[in-house]
Amino acid sequence: MKQENLTKIKNLRRELHANPELSMNEIETKRRLMNFLEENTRLAVVDCGRWFYASRYVEGTKGTAFRADMDALPMDEVIDIPHASRNSGVSHKCGHDGHCAALCGFGLELDAMNPDRSVYLIFQHAEETGQGARECAAFLRERSISEIYAFHNWSGWPEKSIVVREGLCQCSSAGLTIKFTGKASHASEPEKGINPAFAIAKIISELESAIHNNRKLLCTVVNIKLGEKNFGISPGDGEISLTLRAEREEDMRVFRNAVVNLAERLGRENSLGVEIVGRDYFPETISDSRCVKRIRNAAGSLGLNVIDMPDAIRASEDFGFYTKQIHGAIFYIGNGESYPAIHTSEYDFNDEILETAVDMFAKIFQRV
User: Fold this and answer.
1) What are φ and ψ of residue 174, in 5° steps?
2) I need a surface site. Which of 65, 179, 316, 358 has the fewest CB within 10 A?
3) Residue 129 CB neighbours (<10 A)
4) Residue 251 sits in the same domain as residue 203
């Protein structure tokens, strides 16, 4: 990249970091990104409501798409950096600020490339909750887009290394909250009430056994609510929230149905009302072998170290909604082997990999 352009996207990245917004509320983030592209490129910028895209259309060609995600996480900023979050309880601890800045950098490069086929830069909302790509995916077929690519920054791999995997890259998952409604009573007379504590405990116990017997399934208890610190009351209401994971979407659905059936059975056995609330649904992410080959070729032409990821990442990624529609691939750029992990309070996007991401997008598009 020209040094001038690299400086622009580094400044943009830090501006985004200082002004983070949660999923489905990326109003100012979208505005900043649209303004940047309108002021610095000749791309057509199209507002699609919660998300937008920038494009260079070439008549009679099938397009290639590249995606970045815009949302931040509900976490406080605790590290002392000049571009620290100004929004209490919200911070870019997954690196989506860097993903967007890199895609804008690719937009700057496109102005000098004179592409011979259509290209679309998709700036997507709500990746963290799985809502964004689900809403954007139909756009791919509407515009006859043939391939889509994205990258994610990842700690634990050498800085600027390119990590790839054909087939399954990231697992399927779903959030599930089970709400039990019973009857409160005096703590000295629990038999006169219906306390959901034992049903919740039974769910935890049975899920622990199920996971132990099937290593391809994972259940994480993320929250339990039951009563208050009042030693005179046996609570009547309680809930448990779980994240369910499996390698494949069909296995995760079977797992989810089993958990729902367990909750409903415990409700009947204990005379408890049961309400099931699902959210944060993600299919598995599959990378197409032909698209992965393009990524390898791009990295090779740039002299970058390519690492084959041996196992799929447990964490989910809503990019899988796109690869259900068309061929595509996600790749990972190493932050550094000892770099703070994403989704931790110590993390901030590594600006040293911004140019790497832009160069990779450009080479993938050029099909070197």
Assistant:
1) -155, 140
2) 179
3) 18
4) yes
